[in-house]
Design the sequence.
């Protein structure tokens, strides 16, 4: 008696800023895994930093392990988040470009999913990025500015909502319509300078209660300690054990002030009013798209923040529905694309 042999699930490799304790990136990994496990099953792997959250992590700090994973993989998914930037380091951009380049040398397909392109990326770096992305089987970007930048260099892409918008969130507590309890999601791009500026603003907002919630605790620990040392009065630091818990924590606030892109997304998912403190382009772009008050560094004063907090609280929180639909549809499209390409 004969039978039909089942095709072996393909080995799919995911690559992003995974395993470093950044809540947004860990949520992206979770959502990608959920979408692609039906396609890859036990063949799903991901490049990981020192804090891998799931089985299947391959240390990205061991070149031999990375090369072995690339050789074994039948397809690579690169994303999401703003991978194509040089603010953190030029080596970061080079690393994310090296991965699809290696897949090209090996004659294997890759997909680029849910990424952003830094609007301030130098022209040479942007051209190098576009040259590689033109070889991708599919490119999804999370904003129109990224699509436009790539289209000008011959890269066709599909605009989707950021992957984290697909996170399922239980019904929130009803917003109180107040702005007294303010939850700050900080980022410290300029180190001590940002600490001093945030301390001055928070200390000046004496009519409000304040709490801090870091989205990247390993990176934020030292500047947060310095910030707390400069704050007057009682300011709690809220913690989370798993990133999917964060929307529930945000529901305990009346209004959120975020310096991080995914802080804006998670505030919307928690149905909380939000103010964007935009130290760089991607936070400003998303804040404006969401209709949130956006304050750039020159406007960081207690008076301007107080006005922004009241303005945010006076308007309904952003409805994530259409963005959630967009992100989930893109995840389904990615899974179908990999299935049709890699399962024979």
Sequence:
């Amino acid at each position: 008696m004969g039978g039909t042999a089942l095709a072996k699930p393909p080995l799919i490799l995911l690559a992003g800023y995974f395993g470093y304790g950044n809540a947004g990136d860990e949520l992206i990994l979770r959502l990608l895994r959920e979408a692609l496990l039906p396609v890859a099953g036990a063949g799903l792997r991901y490049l990981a930093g020192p804090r891998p959250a799931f089985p299947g992590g391959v240390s990205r700090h061991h070149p031999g392990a990375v090369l072995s994973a690339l050789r074994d993989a039948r397809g690579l998914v690169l994303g999401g988040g703003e991978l194509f930037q040089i603010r953190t380091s030029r080596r970061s951009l080079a690393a994310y470009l090296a991965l699809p380049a290696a897949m090209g040398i090996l004659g294997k397909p890759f997909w680029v999913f849910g990424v952003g392109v830094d609007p301030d990326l130098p022209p040479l770096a942007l051209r190098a990025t576009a040259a590689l992305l033109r070889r991708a089987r599919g490119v999804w970007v999370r904003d129109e500015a990224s699509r436009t930048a790539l289209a000008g260099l011959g890269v066709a892409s599909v605009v989707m909502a950021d992957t984290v918008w697909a996170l399922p969130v239980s019904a929130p507590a009803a917003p109180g319509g107040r702005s007294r309890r303010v939850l700050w999601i900080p980022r410290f791009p300029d180190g001590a300078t940002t600490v001093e500026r945030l301390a001055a603003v928070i200390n000046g907002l004496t009519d409000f209660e304040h709490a801090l919630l870091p989205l990247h605790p390993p990176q934020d620990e030292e500047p947060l300690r310095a910030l707390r040392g400069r704050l007057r009065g009682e300011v709690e630091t809220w913690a989370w054990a798993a990133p999917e818990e964060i929307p529930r924590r945000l529901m305990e606030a009346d209004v959120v002030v975020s310096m991080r892109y995914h802080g804006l997304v998670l505030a919307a998912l928690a149905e909380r009013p939000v103010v964007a403190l935009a130290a760089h382009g991607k936070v400003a772009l998303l804040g404006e798209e969401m209709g949130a008050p956006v304050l750039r560094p020159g406007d960081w004063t207690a008076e301007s923040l107080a006005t922004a907090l009241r303005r945010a609280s006076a308007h309904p929180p952003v409805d994530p529905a259409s963005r959630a639909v967009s992100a989930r549809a893109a995840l389904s499209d990615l899974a179908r694309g990999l299935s049709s390409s890699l399962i024979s």
In short: The longest strand covers residues 75-84.
